[in-house]
Write a structure and sequence with these properties.
Elements: H1 2-17, E1 58-64, E2 70-76, H2 80-93, E3 97-104, E4 107-114, E5 117-126, E6 129-137
Antiparallel strand pairs: 1-2, 2-6, 3-4, 4-5, 5-6
Length: 140
């Protein structure tokens, strides 16, 4: 139960940070990566292959946290409902389970699991753009 509240706290923080601050919430990628941990341009940060980037979205921020994970913020001109529909379908196809979902004032958040791994997707609309915050962690 506590882990669920912590995951939602991370997801909410990601959504609130989507307005321009860089995310610092921990998340991780289980697969081997080719980019070293640390500062990198957002486009260079690798997400796990089963956590897709939204097609055509541009990476605007992110962090590779080494063995703790990755977090990436993407921007698109598509509306939040279209982006949410894409992630529901793509993540189900990749074998992720939606553990929790919340929609508040046009913001959508998904908390996901796949085995021991966890991921969060936060989708917000600000200043005429949709922002997608993705994080992935290896679990315990």
């Amino acid at each position: 139960m506590r882990q669920g509240r912590t995951a939602w706290g991370v997801a909410i923080a990601m959504a609130l940070c989507a307005c321009g601050a860089e995310e610092t919430a921990p998340a991780a990628e289980p697969a081997a990566r080719t980019t070293p941990p640390g500062p990198a341009s957002p486009e260079e940060i690798e997400l796990p292959s089963d956590l897709p980037r939204y097609p055509g979205a541009v990476a605007s921020a992110g962090s590779d946290l080494g063995d703790r994970g990755v977090i990436v913020r993407l921007d698109t001109d598509h509306d939040t409902d279209r982006v949410l529909a894409f992630y529901r379908e793509a993540l189900e196809r990749e074998g992720w389970s939606v553990e929790d979902e919340m929609s508040v004032s046009g913001q959508h958040m998904l908390r996901l699991s796949k085995g021991e791994r966890q991921a969060n997707v936060a989708i917000t609309f600000r200043a005429g753009r949709t922002t997608i915050s993705l994080s992935a962690s290896p679990g315990s």
